Amino acid sequence: MSRKIPLFINGEFMLGSSDHIQPVTSPATQEVLAEVPFATAKEVDFAVASAKEAFETWREVPISERARLMLRYQALLKEHHDELGEILAKDTGKTFEDAKGDVWRGIEVVEQAANIASAMMGETVENVAGGIDSYSYIQPLGVCVGITPFNFPAMLPLWMFPMAIACGNTFVLKPSEQVPMTPVRLIELFIEAGAPKGVLNMVHGGAEQVDQLINHADTQTVSFVGSSRVGEYIYQASTVAGKRVQCMMGAKNHMVIMPDADKNAVLNALVGASVGAAGQRCMAISVAVFVGESASWIPELAERVATARPGAWDDAGAAYGPVISKPAHTRILDLIAKGKTEANCLLDGSECTVEGMPDGNWVGPTVFSGVTPDMTIYKEEIFGPVLCCMELETLDDALAVINANPMGNGTSIFTASGGAARKYQHEVAVGQVGINIPIPVPLPFFSFTGWRGSFRGDLHPYGKQAVRFYTETKTVTARWRYDESEAGKQPNMSINLR
């Protein structure tokens, strides 16, 4: 009998009362792993009300105590790192090593949340005018909402709720209904770390529950990671509802290969960056742009990519796992079929099978050459283990193509020329740039800074920008007279502080 995934509200796990129940299936076998009851409207209201009530006391907890909660939490996450990795691997189909990397990148953000005091320091100027001092405070906002996707069920929730809660807010998490088991374990460890009831809550559901959270009068912020279609809707709806919102959305990430680059480093980097995690990363390299003579490396690239075989999460020889669902599988195969009519298919993974797992959502590594910007396989975010290769003459040509793409999440360049690297990082209109690094996801003392169609909002997740997103600034202008005989001699009828 499959496990029923609980809600978490007001410090307690509870089985939802809804008749709307969705199965959680293994993408490798189609086995039903669990069942997710979508939260009712009353349960969503209860979660928000619990968070609102907890905020009144949590905001008054000294910042040093909030930091210590995060220190205890990151220690527990490290202690249970492999356990979390196994849960996540079974949940998503990722290989065990990839799943552990998912967990670790989340732990890094919790470590930054433990350093919250220095990030929330205000500013002070003494004697700005006639004995008047000005200073500012950074204060929390209230109830924050996080909506996370299937592909990183540990990392992305940990990008959100630890920073929000460390800042003094409370939180309602709505994880992907496709992979709910990992978030449950994250919450269990948060309770063990000493989190008070109501500070973190979790509800399950789809569009209806998301709309309720967005439009609820008592929620203040909305953080979202997912598809562009959903992200655009959430951004517009949240903005209309008066929420502070950040939406991390779709991507089409290019890696530029200059002729002077280290060939072996380029080919090895492209294999992992393109088909790792079955291509289900918003920072995956899905387009390789070969400049000049480097285009001669494409046949050898296809040979190397062909060695990256998919397999089960506990198969130590597998490079990646299945894609998340049957609909995703069908969509990817349809795009590969379309690509065969547009470009040269050097490696076709559409007939992939894995021994002993005939029902898995398997897609083999796939490589196209001769891809141009007008092709469907270039314009669509395939979100599968598919690499599109373009051949261009100059670095300026590459910059023109990349800057014309509507997305701007991540990009990289491989070159031995400092001048080429400097030109590229300066002129490319993309938020995250790697130089001889294929997937330039910044560590959490920076922020995750997608641009253009890959992001909607003003402040990005984690790092300093996350602190600004989850807080508001209050500025105080004060005068304290020591000699009371000087106080209030004449009325001041102007705006000048004198």
UniProtKB/TrEMBL annotation:
Which Gene3D superfamilies does this one have?
A: Aldehyde Dehydrogenase, Chain A, domain 1, Aldehyde Dehydrogenase, Chain A, domain 2
- Which keywords annotate this record? NAD, Oxidoreductase
Superkingdom of origin? Bacteria
Cited SUPFAM superfamilies:
ALDH-like (SSF53720)
Q: What is its EC number?
A: 1.2.1.27
Q: Where does the Aldehyde dehydrogenase domain start and stop, copy by copy? A: 18-476
For this chain, one GO molecular function annotation is:
oxidoreductase activity
Q: InterPro entries annotated for this entry?
A: Ald_DH/histidinol_DH, Ald_DH_C, Ald_DH_CS_CYS, Ald_DH_N, Aldehyde_DH_dom, MeMal-semiAld_DH
CDD domains in alphabetical order: ALDH_F6_MMSDH (cd07085)
Signal peptide as annotated in the record:
none
Q: Which family does it belong to?
A: Belongs to the aldehyde dehydrogenase family.
- What name appears for this protein in its UniProt entry? methylmalonate-semialdehyde dehydrogenase (CoA acylating)
